[in-house]
Amino acid sequence: MPQRPRALEPSRSARDWFGAELRHWRKARRLSQDALGASVHVSGDLIAKIEKAQRPCKPGLAAALDAVLGTGGVLARGLEHVGRDADNRGSDVDRPDMSRGASHPAKSSASSLPMVEAGERRSVGKQIDAAALGSAMTLMNGEVRVACRASDGRVTFVTMPRRKLLRGVTAAAGATPLQAPGLSLSLPPTKPVSAGLLTSSMHPVENFRALRRSLVECDNFLGPRNVVTDVQDHIRRVQQLRQEASGRDRQDLMQVQAEYAEFCSWLYQDSGDFRAAQYWADRAVEWSTVAGALDLTIYTMARKAQLAGDMRDPLDTIDLAEAAQRIAPPRSRLSAMGAIYGAHGHALRGDERASRNAYDQALEVVMGPDNDGITRGRWLDAAYVEAQRARSLLALGNHQDAAAGFERAVCALPTSYRRDRGVYLARAAVAQLHADGPETAAASGSAALVIATATGSARIFTELAVLDAKLQRWVSVTEVVEFREALDNVMLHDV
After folding, report:
1. Sequential DSSP letters for 263-315
2. In principle, which of 33, 70, 190, 293 could form an S-S bond with 288, CB 3.0–4.6 Å?
3. pLDDT digits over 128-146, tens only?
4. How far apart are CA 224 and CA 269, in angstroms?
5. CB 491 within 8 A of CB 151
6. Which domain holds residue 327?
7. Looking at 63, 94, 125, which one is the last position of a domain?
8. Is pTM, for the whole model, over 0.70?
9. Number of structural domains the chain divides into
10. SUPFAM superfamilies from the entry (predicted)?
């Protein structure tokens, strides 16, 4: 009987990420390790060892794999990160093996934990496994939101105090209290900020902006739970500096404060805490208006439309998007952002023509000359427009075109945008279920799951919960069994 594939931990190192990515693309193309190896003139055993991060991949082989698998160069680009990270990984003996007993997670004594669902609070018993920390997502009130397999098989989300989750995990593991890396959900005491910072070699405005850029890069790769505490701490420090500043310094610090607030809103949106996301977006609009940063105000209004789309509120999505477009410079990227998020609102209402026209309008802008003089939103490109269009096509039931659009979007993503890759893969999996069948859908879902576990992205877990429900008709398919068992291993369970 063939051995089950080793569970991969792409967050552990760049080499582990590379192996998980290679396995995803191989399964998506329905190739065995031996078949893929033969296509690039190496053994199937070498492919297996690269997937398990036991052997490095050489640049020439990565390029050959990209060509055979049609990845758009993902593996060759990812190899740059592998080289920088090659010597930073600890030994296997220094880590608990979370992959053992995937089908039988360690159990604790049943405890009564609050579950919030459809506005109701009820108590249910849970089996808590240490791996459940992988699906834990930050909430603003100091609690965590964790994916849970209900007794009827559905995936829901439970909200509980972080300490209670960690106590349950400790009981399950029979060990000393666990410290989840990056899962610091309470703000540390604010340190005093010296007024002398305003006259240091680097102005605090530029210093905090540089720190924010670093946190954005960290969020791209590690997810929101690893950076949200730092972001809120920086907001408080900027507020302190504003107390001692005057004139242009105070205005510029207010703009920096607004930039951090908008970023904080995004972190909570990705964590699934929509109320907190709305709170910080409102602060960003207020503070950017006070600072006179119109471009940031428009940007945040467009982002509020995106948030309303995630909350599946089509009217608010359209109204907020149109508000952003009204105050944005015509044919600017900020105007295109409003068009994109408004297009999804139209899709949620079932208006395919309005959705298509809005996407075409946005695509025309981003494909045109870049001379609007606005620096915010430079990440917006044709690939992003098409990824959002694919999401709307999925909402409209056009699964074939949605699956093709998501595949192009995944190929076009930079390697560092790992969390976005997980979102696209999870959404693609739902479209692929209808367009290509359960095997392809489950393979994409499994690839998205390893990213969701590493980043704690509620957007990914929410899409995977939809996929899981749809896959219940194919519980005898091997790929579906593997996906559902892996999903079970990072969730709480009703008892």
Report:
1. HHHHHHHHHT-HHHHHHHHHHHHHHHHHHT-HHHHHHHHHHHHHHHHHTT-HH
2. 293
3. 444 444 555 656 655 666 6
4. 9
5. no
6. 284-494
7. 94
8. no
9. 2
10. lambda repressor-like DNA-binding domains, TPR-like
Contact 33, 51 (CB under 8 A): yes
Q: Is 324 part of a structural domain of the chain? A: yes
278 within domain boundaries: no
- Environment class of residue 175 by beta-carbon count within 10 Å: exposed (0-12), middle (13-18) or buried (19+)? exposed
Q: Which of 94, 122, 142 is where one domain is finished?
A: 94
Alpha-carbon torsion (31, 34, 37, 38), positive or negative: negative
End-to-end CA distance of the chain: 32
Rounded CA separation 50/79 (Å): 12
Q: What are the CA-CA distances from residue 447 to residues 27, 163, 414, 444, 451 (Å)?
A: 10, 30, 16, 5, 7
Distance of CA 133 to the CA centre of its chain: 16
User: Distance (Å, rounded) from C-alpha 471 to C-alpha 109?
Assistant: 30
Spatial CA neighbour of 75 closest among 91, 53, 60: 60
CATH number, domain of 73, equals 1.10.260.40
CA-nearest of 426, 405, 410 to 471 is: 426
More confident residue, 290 or 368: 290
Q: Is 274 exposed, middle or buried (0-12, 13-18, 19+ CB in 10 A)?
A: middle
Domain assignment of residue 232, yes or no: no
3-state secondary structure 102-127: CCCCCCCCCCEEEEEECCEEEEEEEE
β-pairing, 112-117 with 120-127? antiparallel
Q: Which two tokens stand for residue 144?
A: 């965590």
CATH number of the structural domain spanning residue 376: 1.25.40.10
Judge whether 159 lies within some domain: no
Q: Could you give the 3-state DSSP secondary structure of residue 239? A: helix
pLDDT tens track for 65-107: 988 888 767 788 777 656 544 433 332 322 333 333 333 333 3
Query: Tokens standing for 50?
Result: 């690269």
The backbone torsions φ and ψ at residue 184, rounded to the nearest 5 degrees and listed phi first, read -95, 110
Number of other CB atoms surrounding residue 428 within 10 Å = 33
Query: How many Å apart are CA 207 and CA 93, to the nearest integer?
Result: 40
